[in-house]
Design goal:
The chain has 16 helices and 18 strands. It folds into four domains: 88 residues, Uridine Diphospho-n-acetylenolpyruvylglucosamine Reductase, domain 2; 119 residues, Uridine Diphospho-n-acetylenolpyruvylglucosamine Reductase, domain 3 (2-Layer Sandwich), CATH 3.30.465.10; 110 residues, 2-Layer Sandwich (Alpha-Beta Plaits), CATH 3.30.70; 104 residues, Alpha-Beta Plaits (2-Layer Sandwich). The protein is of the alpha+beta class. The termini are close together. A seven-stranded antiparallel β-sheet has the order 15-12-14-13-17-18-16, sandwiched between helices. It has a five-stranded antiparallel β-sheet with strand order 5-6-10-8-9. The protein has a four-stranded mixed β-sheet with strand order 1-2-4-3, sandwiched between helices. Keywords: FAD, Flavoprotein, Metal-binding, Oxidoreductase, Zinc.
């Protein structure tokens, strides 16, 4: 659905914003708020509205139903599947002004936030309370909580702490019919039927908009220590993971190729972790709560070297050095961004990662001999990021067209390995036509039925995730 032929009057919409919200119609604002980090679709919203409260969001949704107007939610606009792109005259609902931390309870370790709270803002608040919000990723400085939950964002700590949905104690949402629902209300135990929270987490705004979230916090980790290891072969990633997990509780286990490190070094002047050049690298993080833990880690490292799995390695000696080592992984995305990468965000069971990655890599190398391929990902939870980089002399449209031709081959392998075509970036518009590689026809039919219940007029982020019927 797009906006109808009825003339759109910004003043009518503005009159509904009794709590200080605003409406934007300037071309620069439309271009900025109408897109996310994908560059496949051109933004073309009719206007941007920035509410200040749940009640204003409710008024906007009711107005949109009356006007048969499509709505697109906009958070930090860091998405990679075009889930927040308004390309067909939709009204963008941006949550930038709903950025307040509303309440905190130290006994319950829960904090109530508006949807526009930035991830780093929540992390910093938790630290001020001597607590910890563990969901973390490279876009933490700009991504917003509502967007994180709408895509069930994961990031670099999933191996220890899980996905965004694991930290949600309650939600306030406005459904597509304009109803306000308060879900779970911060309860740890609530066995009263369907847990509707989980429908909106990962729902990409297609059922309704998250306006507030009550988030759980945990204790701060102690003595976080980072190791970067040069791997002899791709299959060694699982050997090393198993060796360390048998003795230590890892908080992260990341993977990246030598090509990825080269881009980071060229972009950010980050030093190599050690002199030995390796085809692949693993980054491990764990809590070194005692000298005994460090000794255990060094013993495992030596075992890995003796087994021929690891060529070289380095361990952080300070918090500052740990942060520098993390730069090797966290700055990959920004370093390859100028090359307009075509991204695929895939996952399989952890045990199947090596053969899965090798099979995918052989396909893309064969199909794209003239394209540069960069691999990295959260290999400890089975999540791999395949990045195909655009040649500088190729037009963007031609590049994306060529990349899409291999998707059926790649996703056919994903289906055979019983994996996911989108591990953490969401489906949006980019992955929608490939949903059937991960979801059965019966599952998709149920999803469409659920959307009809919450969004009977099909106004909530149409064209994303699934098509309305």
């Amino acid at each position: 659905m797009s906006s109808t032929g009825t003339a759109f009057d910004p003043q009518t919409l503005e009159s509904l914003l009794t709590d200080g919200g605003k409406v934007l119609t300037a071309p620069d604002d439309l271009a900025s708020y109408g897109c996310d980090w994908t560059r496949i679709y051109e933004p073309a919203p009719i206007a941007v509205v920035l509410p200040k409260s749940t009640e204003e969001v409710q008024a906007i949704v009711r107005f949109a139903n009356e006007q048969h107007m499509a709505l697109v939610p906009s958070g930090g606009r860091t998405g990679l599947s075009a889930g927040a792109v308004a390309a067909n005259g939709e009204l963008v609902v941006a949550f930038d002004r709903m950025n307040q931390i509303l309440d905190f309870n130290a006994s319950d370790r829960i904090v109530q936030c508006q949807a526009g709270v930035v991830t780093e803002q929540l992390q910093n608040f938790a630290e001020e309370q001597d607590l910890y919000y563990p969901v973390d990723f490279a876009s933490a400085g700009s991504s917003q909580l509502g967007g994180n939950l709408s895509t069930n964002a994961g990031g670099i700590k999933v191996i220890r702490y899980g996905m965004s949905r694991d930290w949600v104690a309650g939600l306030k949402v406005v459904t597509g019919s304009g109803e306000i629902l308060e879900l779970n209300r911060g309860l740890e135990k609530n066995n009263t039927g369907y847990d509707l929270r989980q429908l909106f987490i990962g729902g990409e705004g297609t059922l309704g908009f998250i306006t507030e979230a009550t988030m759980k916090l945990t204790r701060q980790p102690t003595g976080l220590t980072v190791m970067v290891l040069g791997l002899n072969d791709l299959t060694n990633t699982m050997d090393v993971l198993q060796a360390f997990r048998n003795k230590l509780d890892l908080t992260a286990y990341e993977f990246f190729s030598h090509e990825a490190i080269q881009h980071v070094q060229q972009h950010a002047e980050v030093q190599s972790p050690f002199e030995t050049e390796a085809p692949y690298y693993a980054l491990l993080e764990f809590e070194a709560i005692s000298d005994g833990v460090l000794e255990e880690a060094m013993g495992i490292f030596e075992q890995c070297v003796e087994s021929g799995w690891v060529l070289d390695g380095v361990i952080s000696q300070s918090e500052a050095q740990a942060e520098k080592l993390w730069q090797l992984r966290e700055r990959i995305s920004e370093s390859i961004a100028p090359r307009t990468p075509y991204k695929n965000d895939l996952s399989v069971r952890v045990s199947r990662v090596p053969e899965f990655l090798q099979e995918i890599d052989s396909v893309v190398q064969k199909e794209y001999p003239d394209f540069e391929i960069v691999w990295f990902g959260h290999i400890g939870d089975g999540n791999l990021h395949l990045n195909i980089l655009k040649p500088e002399d190729m037009e963007k449209a031609e590049f994306f067209r060529r990349c899409e031709t291999v998707n059926d081959l790649v996703f056919g392998i994903v289906e055979r390995y019983e994996g996911s075509v989108s591990a953490e970036h969401g489906v949006g518009m980019v992955k929608k036509k490939y949903l059937g590689y991960t979801k059965s026809e019966a599952e998709i039919a149920v999803m469409k039925g659920i959307k009809r219940v919450f969004d009977p007029n099909g106004i909530m982020n149409p064209g994303k995730l699934i098509d309305s019927e």
